[in-house]
Amino acid sequence: MLRRNGTRGCSAERLAREFDVSVRTVKRDLAALESSGAPLWSRPGPGGGYGLAIGASLPPVSLSPAQAVALMAAVSAATDAPFSDLATAGVQKILDVLDPRTRARADALAGRVWVNKPPASSRATRSALEEAMAEQRVLRLRYTAGDGTTTMRDVEPVLFASTNGQWYLVGWCRLRDAMRWFTVSRIERASVTATPCSGHTVAEVGEPPANARPVHGRG
After folding, report:
1. How far is Cα 98 from Cα 57, in angstroms, rounded to an integer?
2. I need a labelling partner for 204 at 20 to 30 A (CA). Which of 3, 28, 53, 97 fits?
3. What is the pLDDT of residues 116-139, one digit of tens each?
4. Taking the domains of the chain in order of start, what are their residue ranges?
């Protein structure tokens, strides 16, 4: 979106409306982009905003059509995964810089891969979960359990976990004073509080099953 707006730039408020997240989340993600080396500029005051330096782009990327489709399929099938919107944007950046012949072959192959996407939780809810996990802040959740009981809970996020096609938020529940697994699709509302987490660790959740591992541990 920054690239599309060119020299006009775009305010944090407009970006927040466009992606249905908080201004705080937008500014966090812009700061992360800048720290990763993206040539961003900012202009303060009325009519100001953020933009991407002219000519900024990814270097040439060498992928086969099958590799490109593999990325598209993985992201398309994981709409409820943490940071899935960022993954979608990242894949689009890669596709944009493929050479025309490879892109055309990838598009043709992609038409032969169908994905039945499960309904995703709201973008605002997922944004709150992602922000709280990244900044280690307490979440306030409206949660409906499997038996239909709805409660309001303050939860300290510890990790995201995926099992049997379902995503979970694992965290210390201050209502139950214990570690709990919350099905992401059953979280009706979520907001990030100003309260920092008290320091519960992944080790308290226990050892992952033999067939599970952190995403950075994939071979």
Report:
1. 12
2. 28
3. 776 666 888 988 999 999 999 999
4. 2-52, 65-110, 123-217
Torsion angle, CA of 29/90/71/135, rounded to 10 degrees? -10
CA 9 to chain centre: 23
Long-range contacts of 81-84 (CB under 8 A, 24+ apart): 81/160, 81/162, 81/167, 82/126, 82/129, 82/130, 82/133, 82/160, 82/167, 83/130, 84/120, 84/126
pLDDT per residue as tens digits for the range 195-213: 999 999 999 998 887 777 7
Q: pLDDT averaged over the chain?
A: 86
Rounded Cα distance, 7 and 51, in Å:
7
The CA angle 111-117-121, to the nearest 5 degrees, is: 145
Burial class of residue 149, CB neighbours in 10 A (0-12, 13-18, 19+): exposed
* Domain covering 2-52, topology: Arc Repressor Mutant, subunit A (1.10.10)
- Are 196 and 210 in contact, with CB atoms under 8 Å apart? no
Given a cut of 80, is residue 150 above it in pLDDT? yes
Instruction: Determine phi and psi for 112, rounding to 5 degrees.
Output: -100, 10
* Gap between the Cα atoms of 116 and 133, Å rounded: 28
Structure tokens at 16: 């927040």
pTM for the whole thing? 0.63
